[in-house]
Amino acid sequence: MSFNLANKPLAERAALEDEKSRLYDLWQSNLGKAKGDAARLFGERAKRKGKWAEWVRSELDAMSPPEYANMVRSEVNRMMAAAK
């Protein structure tokens, strides 16, 4: 199995590039909002204590689209790593 794009048919390469472009646009237009949502979730950490991780998972599961939820999850993880 090769991951070299040159070995893929033109239509498949174009579809992959379109998806990459879509994800970049989503990231670029939603990064600020994702950081704000992550800060809100992280800010609940002291208040929710032991139930915080479970609550964050449920909040992330409710977010749409899934790519946005992944952006928020990454930001929360970054904040947790910085807090240690």
Largest sheet: none
State the order of secondary-structure elements, H for helix, E for strand.
Answer: HHHH
Tell me what portion of residues adopts beta-strand conformation: under 5%
Shape: elongated
Q: Helix count?
A: 4
Distance between the termini: 40 Å
Mean pLDDT: 94
The poorly predicted ranges are none
Category by helix and strand content: mainly alpha
What is the count of β-strands? 0
Radius of gyration: 17 Å
Q: State the share of residues found in helices, binned by percent.
A: over 70%
Explain how this protein is built.
This protein is mainly alpha-helical and 84 residues long. The protein has a domain at 31-84. Helices cover 80% and strands 0% of the residues. It has 4 helices and no strands. α1 crosses α4. The chain is elongated. The mean pLDDT is 94.
Defining traits:
84 residues, DUF3106 domain-containing protein, 80% helix, mainly alpha
Question: Helix and strand layout, with pairings?
Answer:
Layout: H1 10-43, H2 45-48, H3 52-62, H4 66-83
Helix pairs in contact: 1-4
Protein name: DUF3106 domain-containing protein
Organism: Pseudomonas sp. WC2401
Can you describe this structure in just a few lines?
With 84 residues, the protein is mainly α.
